[in-house]
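Incident log, structure service

09:12 report received: a user says their structure output differs between two submissions of the same chain.
09:20 pulled the input from the user's history:
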Amino acid sequence: MPRVQLDFPAETKFTCELTVRGSDLNYGNHVGNDSMLTLMQEARISFYRSVGYRNELNFEGTIGHVIADATIVYKLEAFLGDVLTVDIAVTDFHKYGFDMFYRLRNKLTGKDVAIGKTGMVFFDYEKRKVASIPAGFLEKVKVSL
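09:34 re-ran on a clean worker, output below:
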């Protein structure tokens, strides 16, 4: 079976740094696959906070989003204390969501550790159903459909 390929988009919307913690390590003494998703979430929340949102649950009233799918392509190991530079890009907007890409690089070496993608779907947490993208969200992330 062919391996999954992800190409990080040309336009980066946000960059932050995260330090690998002891709780991110697995039995192989490197960042575990579950922790890679957690690091991506931390970067995503930092991105949202940078544009004025408190969290992922209340973009507009009770509308937040859920992750519909997630893909990670691992390039290199990351270890305790490594500082990762995380770039975020947003693409493929549609009525109910978009894709968010993450490029995690070792700050010291500049080499890619992983490329990830999450498919985001907007969700009304009160009605418990899929919702359209709030117009204010598109404005804040400077995207037009």
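09:41 both user submissions now match this output. Likely a transient worker issue. Closing.
09:42 reviewer note: The helical segments are 33-50, 135-140. The beta strands are 14-19, 63-74, 83-94, 97-106, 112-124, 129-130.
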